[in-house]
Structures are given as structure tokens and as C-alpha cells.
Amino acid sequence: MANEEPAEKKTHRDLNREGEGRPGGRRPFLNRSNLRDIIIVVCLISAVLYNLDWIRLSVAGVLLTFGCFFHYMTKGVLIRNVILCREGTYSVVRHPYYMANYLIDSSFCLVSGNVYLLLIYPFLFYWSYGPTIRKEEATLARLHDSDYLRYSLDVPQIFPDAYSVRSLKGVGKGFSMQRITRNEISRFMRFWATGFLIIFIHTLKAADLQRLWSFDPAVISDNPHGFALLLSTIVLFVASLLVQCKKEEPALKAQ
């Protein structure tokens, strides 16, 4: 008789078969893997067409900061496919990683200045993430049975409510730095580099962009703040590549 595949490997395989269950096993055009790329491209174009004020810039900075924080804390708590995570950020919402992605992408939409993109993003988010969330929850319910049922009844799915938000005081419970990989650090750098790049385009707009493409050196002296943003963007992107290229130490899978 053939040996059965371990449950954790089955789970890992199930959670990554997003395209299956559809004709030909193909993903829809808009899915979780490419949503952020599409949003970033639209944001870069929108930055040329729309204006940005200090209020939206400040709110976007807060959203990006909180998004990175929850992303970081979630990675430090998650023990994938081994136990049912209920500590730290998982005591606030059942899918804190996706909540972090929502906050980060919303910050890009906000800093783009395009209010229409900001309004439509929630629908794009649920369209893209919905199938993955349903499959993950079905797998967790199959693996953890009544434990997951009780957990799902106690903790909201994506966004905290008036009761679960109280669990923020224990957000560091179960956190381990050994679960934070270089890839995660690289990703945080790219998040901020993307935000700086969108703001940089706001500082130039169409007229200065034409001068930039014509290699007019005066555009640098005329817009020192903009080129400080551009330099920060380049430094962060290069640093993210260098961090990602370093040899990765094995991450802690369980304690």
C-alpha cells in the first residue's frame, strides 16, 4: 500500500492550487497574485493625472505603517500547516496577512490621488482574495474540525470588530524573530520604495516629466525634494535586492 502524504504537505499543496476547480485550471485575469501589480501601475498613472494633498498623504503614511506592522507581526507568529494559529495578530482577525495587504494597497490608492481607485479597491480585493480565503478556511476546518469552528465564531475574518480589537494588546504573543525571513525584509523595503515613487511622480507632473526625459539638468535643482524622493526610492529598491540575494538561514517552523 502506498504511503499517505503528510497532512501538512497536503495542506500546503491545497492552499497553492488557486487555479484548480475552474475549466482548464486557469486563474482569472485579476487574482491575488497580480492585484498589487495592477494597482501599482494604475497608481503611477493616476499620480500624473490627480493631485495629492497633505491630508491624504498623511493618512496613506499611517495605513502603510500599520500595514507593514501587521504584515511583520503576522509572519513572526505564523507556523504554517502545523498548528491552528490563534495568538498575536491571529487573535484580532483570522486573516491578518490579508488585512495587512489591504492596508498597504489602500495606502497606494490613497497616495495616488485617485479617489475612484480608492473606492473601487475593496471590490477588487474581495474579487481577488475571496477564492483563496474560502479554500484556506475549508482546509483549516477539515484539519482542525471543531477547534477551527470555535475560532471562526470568536474572531472576525478580515477586519477587527469592537471585541476583537481588544486583542491588540497581546499582538506580540507567540512572535519570533526567527520566522522573519530576508524575503520579508526585502518586501517591506519595496513597499516603502513604491510609496516614495508614487509621491515622486506627484512632485514632477507632466511638464517636469517632459524636461526629465529631455535630460534637462535644471529640473534637478528646481525640484530638490522630488529628487530626494527618487534617490530614496532607488536606494530602497537596490537594498531590497541585496537583502533578498543574501543566503537565507532556515526559518523557524515550530517551537
Any descriptors?
255 residues, mainly alpha, disordered C terminus
Q: What's the gist of this structure?
A:
The chain has 255 residues and is mostly helical.
* Continuous helix count: 8
Give me the strand/helix succession. HHHHHHHH
The CATH class of the largest domain is identified as: Mainly Alpha
Which CATH-level-2 architecture of the largest domain?
A: Up-down Bundle
Q: In total, how many beta strands?
A: 0
**Structural class based on helices, strands and sheet pairing:** mainly alpha
Helix content: 55-70%
The CATH topology annotation of the largest domain reads as: Four Helix Bundle (Hemerythrin (Met), subunit A)
Rg is 21 Å
- Mean pLDDT across every amino acid position: 82
The profile of the biggest β sheet is: none
Unreliable segments of 5+ consecutive residues:
1-24, 251-255
**First CA to last CA: what distance?**
33 Å
Domain count: the total is: 2
Shape: elongated
Can you characterise this structure?
α4 packs parallel to α6. Helix content is 64%, strand content 0%. With 255 residues, it is mainly alpha-helical. It has eight helices and no strands. It folds into two domains: 30-180, Four Helix Bundle (Hemerythrin (Met), subunit A), CATH 1.20.120; 181-247.
